[in-house]
Amino acid sequence: MEPNADKLRGLCITSLDDEDDDETELPNQPLPASTVTVAAAASGYDDGDEDEEAEVMLGFLEKPKHPGLLLRHLFPSKAGGIPAWLDPVNLPTGNSSCCGFCGEPLHFVLQIYAPIESNAAAFHRTLFMFMCPSMACLHRDQHKQWTRNQGNPRRSVRVFRCQLPRTNVFYSSEPPSRNNSDKPLCAGAALCHWCGTWKGDKICGGCKKSRYCSEKHQALHWRSGHKNDCLQIINSSEASSSVLPAVGKVPARTSWPEYQIAIDDEVDLDSDGCDEDSSKSLVMQKHGKPDDTMQSWMDQFEVFSRAFSLLCLPT
């Protein structure tokens, strides 16, 4: 993604005027832009009840005290890094995982753990947001929405929902103890060794060990050093696991910095004090002066949040 966040500020991703279709509840199901509101994501709020206010939660970026706190069996809300898939087996594949314009794999932006207590099928529920890092694709996406083309629209930003009942094959039905003893009940699908995000359906023809989600990521991994690693694996009598990156250990340049999202109740603000800098003031009050990396994330997520809110507007 281009480092200059100012270029993102001119982008405004709107919602589509598509008719609501019957949805099939599937793991990691892509959502039409018109079917989710931010309030509903947080609390399962019913839009038909106009007399009851939706509960609004605020998210603050924090550096995790320990990387293990962001593993999937702890049901994290997080930004950057690689996704902690709720359903680690049935991942989006094919066109669902790629930009509708350039065809490249989408980059993970953030995920929010938002269970619905009143829905047994959504005892665990997470929303995942992905976007293409190409500004050209984001602008083309905006233009396509302005033209209101009928049919299946191409998108450079996608939101997926995944939900599971309390009793499932992936996690214990008991809450995690968070004392380093928690473990998932089963392993997930093999992921791409370059991005660590999408399912690694393609296998290196040389070592037969490294897996990739796309030919582009295979080529990038090859040029970044796998060419030598591949020969070592082939020449070794027994492939060493230390040669290949462990799950979650992907090249740092392929993902955005990883942060935990701490969820708090909305702060009651004086209406006279609610200016354009109020969100940044809240972060300053809660966490002190941000460093350069945090400030960059704040600038970028100011735009991401606008785009996400517009994507989630009901039609």
Protein architecture, described:
With 315 residues, this protein is an alpha+beta fold. Helices cover 23% and strands 14% of the residues. The chain is globular and about 60 Å long. Mean pLDDT is 74; it is low at 13-26, 31-48, 242-248 and 310-315. The strands form two sheets. The chain has a seven-stranded antiparallel sheet. A two-stranded antiparallel ribbon has the order 7-8. This is MYND-type domain-containing protein. Residues 192-230 form the MYND-type domain. Keywords: Metal-binding, Zinc, Zinc-finger. It holds the Pfam family zf-MYND.
What fraction, in percent, of the residue positions are helical?
10-25%
| Major β-sheet annotation | 7 strands, antiparallel
Q: Which structural class best describes the helix and strand composition? A: alpha+beta
Order of helices and strands: HEHEEEEHEEEHEHH
Q: Helix tally?
A: 6
Q: What is the number of E strands?
A: 9
What is the general shape?
globular
- Rounded to the nearest angstrom, the distance between the terminal CA atoms is 30 Å
Q: Can you tell me the residue ranges where pLDDT is under 50 for at least 5 consecutive residues? A: 13-26, 31-48, 242-248, 310-315
Strands in their spatial order, largest beta sheet: 1-6-5-4-3-9-2
**Rg, please?**
20 Å
Provide the residue-averaged pLDDT: 74
Strand fraction band?
5-15%
